[in-house]
Amino acid sequence: MILSIESSCDDSSIAVTEIATKKLLFHRKISQEAAHARYGGVVPELASRLHAVDLPRLLEEAKPYLDDLKAVAVTNAPGLSVTLLEGVAMAQALSIAKGLPIIAVNHLKAHIYSLFIEKEAIFPMLVLLISGGHTMVLDVKGFDDITILASTMDDSFGESFDKAAKMMGLGYPGGPVIEKLAQKGDPDRFKMPIPLQHDPRIAFSYSGLKNAVRLLVQKHQPLDDRTKADIAAAFQQAAIAHLLQKSKKIFQQVRPKDFAIVGGASANMEVRRAFANLCAQFGATLHLADLPYCADNAAMVGRCAIDAFYLERFSDALSIEVSPRTDNIF
Ligand code: KG4
Ligand code: ZN
């Protein structure tokens, strides 16, 4: 079995996965969302202190498995260094106490493996990763063969939902709140610019949309509920239209047979609907993680670690890096 630890941002999570069968034997997660909500975003110092409280509690629950482990896996990058350290320190202690190798797991790769929990991996696959930290289209040919085809030039998709929500006083995380509010809104009352619409570059940009929201919020003070819903609907429509326009360009070049959306924002039903249509248009199969595995969790870290285990990608307690270079992220 592999015990896996996730603490890259605001979720403390531990899982235990059986190596040979890929079966998830134990999986628990404590989200810190409520603690960060009043600040409108993640406060790293607070996140770090909460991981220090919650991770040992989860480890205590996983105690029945600790004598059967072959390795301990931990997210080591990318993420908030002060929170990554909490998980890595726990992995180092387990490694030393039990004589276990450490498997350092890249957070973005773990999101890809959220598709394969208790399943065989499917490669090659074109993957859209949309989270609070990243917006990327990846050509995934195998565990070690991942190419970034497009990424954001500024804010990420999920981050733009968080910032739009903060500007309207809707709390954190913004994604689910905006999605819910948008259902009641008129997406056509306000005109939002679709980013990079006439720009040939295959890249994403969300800072312009954020400014469009800011201007509307300023103009319509004090915001009534109808206006908030209409802004949310217009914003979400433009944000998804941008994802779709640029992804379509990539589809025209790559013609993928298998396409997936991963990351916290892949829980958005409008995103899922829009890409189901795009895939139908191109005859591609759409793969999605089950909803509990879209946002950060240790089950995906454990599943990714199984492939790393067979490739013998081991570190030891004294050599594992936290938040290493970000230029060569895979
Ligand atoms: O993958 P994740 O849990 O953490 C990171 O690795 O960043 O993603 C969290 C992000 C947040 O920005 C959150 O607002 C966004 O995913 N998100 C959504 C939805 N649910 C979560 N964005 C849009 N629509 C949603 N339904
Ligand atoms: Zn994530």
Describe this structure in words.
The structure is a single chain. The chain is an alpha/beta fold and 330 residues long. The chain folds into 2 domains: 2-117 and 293-310, Nucleotidyltransferase, domain 5; 125-288, ATPase, nucleotide binding domain (Nucleotidyltransferase, domain 5, 2-Layer Sandwich). 42% of the residues lie in helices and 19% in strands. It is built from 10 helices and 10 strands. Strand 6 (125-130) and strand 7 form a beta hairpin. The radius of gyration is 20 Å and the shape is globular. 46% of the residues are buried. Zinc ion (ZN) is lined by residues 107, 111, 131, 263-264, 296. 5'-O-[(R)-(carboxyoxy)(hydroxy)phosphoryl]adenosine (KG4) binds at residues 9, 131-133, 158-159, 161-162, 173-176, 179, 263-265, 267-268, 295-296.
Short structural summary:
This protein has helices at residues 33-37, 44-61, 81-98, 107-113, 157-167, 174-182, 207-219, 225-254, 269-282, 298-310; strands at 2-6, 11-17, 24-31, 71-77, 102-106, 125-130, 135-142, 145-151, 258-262, 285-288.
